[in-house]
Amino acid sequence: MTTAPHSPARPSPAASKTTDPLQLIDVDHVHFYVGNAKQAAYFYAFAFGFQIEQVADLTSGSREQASWLLTQGNIRFLLTSGMTKDHPANKEVMQYGDGVKDVAFTVFDATKAYEKALANGGTSAYEPYTVSDASGSITRAAIKTYGRCIHSFVSRTGAYDLVNIKKGATFAPGFRKVEGLPVNDYNKQNPCGLKYVDHLVGNVEEGKMNHWVAFYESVLEFSMFKHFDDADISTEYSALMSKVMASGNNLIKMPINEPAEGKKKSQIQEYLDWHDNAPGVQHLALRTDDELHSISELRRRGVEFLAIPDTYYKQVWDRVNKMLTESGHTPVKEDHAKVRDLGILVDADDEGYLLQLFTKPLQDRPTLFFEIICRRGSQSFGKGNFKALFEALELEQEKRGNL
Known about the structure:
Layout: E1 26-33, H1 37-48, E2 51-56, E3 65-72, E4 75-82, H2 88-96, E5 99-106, H3 110-119, E6 124-133, E7 136-144, E8 150-158, H4 162-166, E9 176-177, H5 182-189, E10 194-203, H6 209-218, E11 223-228, E12 239-246, E13 253-260, H7 267-273, E14 280-288, H8 291-300, H9 316-326, H10 336-341, E15 345-349, E16 352-358, E17 369-376, H11 386-400
Parallel strand pairs: 1-4, 5-8, 10-13, 14-17
Antiparallel strand pairs: 1-5, 2-3, 2-9, 3-4, 6-7, 7-8, 10-14, 11-12, 12-13, 15-16, 16-17
């Protein structure tokens, strides 16, 4: 479970009730299973500027697991580790390492959303249940998706309503506020500027992409937003195919990747090899309104990003600005020299441009990383950067002995 405070930054549909049980209001939270939630919380706070907002652990009466809620803008991460040998988080961490267990969606009625998803062909992960106190209630239910991952539906009332959570209200019964941490004060004074989850990318086995595309279309009533094949995403050595699925209001986007045949091993296959050959969430794209500031601050904090070759910048400006001019948009306004010095990727389409950069893996297994993305109109995913990005990824795979 997860969610919390501060800036709404993310566009959201009208707050009126809907007749569609599967209308998704927001990414309620992203739930990670980790080996040591307290230590992971401090890592994400120090490296990425998250507030360590709330906790449910022994001090608040939680005897079987510890869960730490991190927030930044409208991003809510819940980090959970088990405190008993049979806790499912411990079993999954042993099998897969730290990673995303649940991409949870806020809905108007979790029970109705769950029932509709099952009627559409989904498989239950857990049945609806409600926790409540004098302040309000939270109802949750979940369906299974690819590999280890699930999607929880979350509906909230009273003080636990999402509007209140964004303002800093207690996330759920059993959580307590975390007070007096110097890292929280430091992050308020030195913000990284991350606003909300732009998209989440899942890696699946070769030949399974269309299966999961059909799942999102039928079970969750998503539609295909973009499609990239191995002609779009390939280098001399490796390739992949990707289809971007979007919720009905285009608010939530989930690209699905599968490996494609190449001379050597793709980053998707590397992920699968180190994830017990199970599909899962490969990376989260976090939106910022100021790419230069965010990347500069994250680099200052020690976050490692993929290295982009200088040759990339000898061609990118002509390509991007030509496309912008031809489609009636103004050229890239960010300082070109600073973009190059920070190693940021730039791309454009007929709607505008974007800036993006990808971290190196965030843990010892090469199974999870972040993308920092800023959109200046463009709603695409950096197609023009795929070749440069993959070449940078292949350099890192070669260092790890996994290419």
